[in-house]
Amino acid sequence: MTEFLTGFLLISGALLMLIAALGAVRMPDLPTRMHATTKAGALGGGLMVLAVAVYFAEAAVTARALAVVVFIILTAPVAAHIIGRAGYFVGVPLWEGTIRDDLKDRYDPDSHILHSRDRDTGKDE
Amino acid sequence: MDIVIRITFVILSIAMVLTFLRLAKGPTLPDRVVALELLASLTVGFIAVHTIFTGEPHFIDVAVVLALTAFLAAIGFARYLERGGKRDD
Predict the structure, then answer these.
(1) ipTM higher than 0.90?
(2) Which residues of chain B lie closer than 8 angstroms to A11, CB-CB?
(3) Containing domain of residue B19, as a range?
(4) Which domains does chain A carry?
(5) In A, which residues are within 8 Å of B48 by CB distance?
């Protein structure tokens, strides 16, 4: 039973990692690539570390494995957010099929200020 | 169990080669940072499989440290990018 669960977690984690890598290669621009790598990569890594906890079934190993899982879950969104933010501010071009860019014309790269828009008048503040 | 571990190694290696393709192609620096971050999580997965393969549970400590440094590297790269402004990669 333990062997079966370990094998299942390993294979599913590895396949999720493969999906993440495929997304990194095939997706057209930075945000879509990050969408593939962050979610699938974090879940895949978490599952594989969980497989270690299931396989050894010792308190010390399980505690460390859970620490890795919690750390991955906490840091993956933060890292993705901060890289995506930096990428947008640096001016990485979006895919030509992008239909909506809410920050367009509201960010000033020279002053590094992001303006909000007035809801009633539609004017930039 | 042995065959499962071998299959996992093969899948992870293919994923690593694909990620290297993106790392080499770019085209911009943030794209390469994303590829590097995926490479770090792939390495954490590799360490997990290697821990089971060798039956030596102490290797999981390496995964803890690698996950930590990968996050710090991503934060550092992002700060560097934001401070640097526009450039031609």
Answers:
(1) no
(2) 4, 7-8, 11
(3) 2-84
(4) 2-96 (1.10.287)
(5) 10, 13, 45, 48-49, 51-52
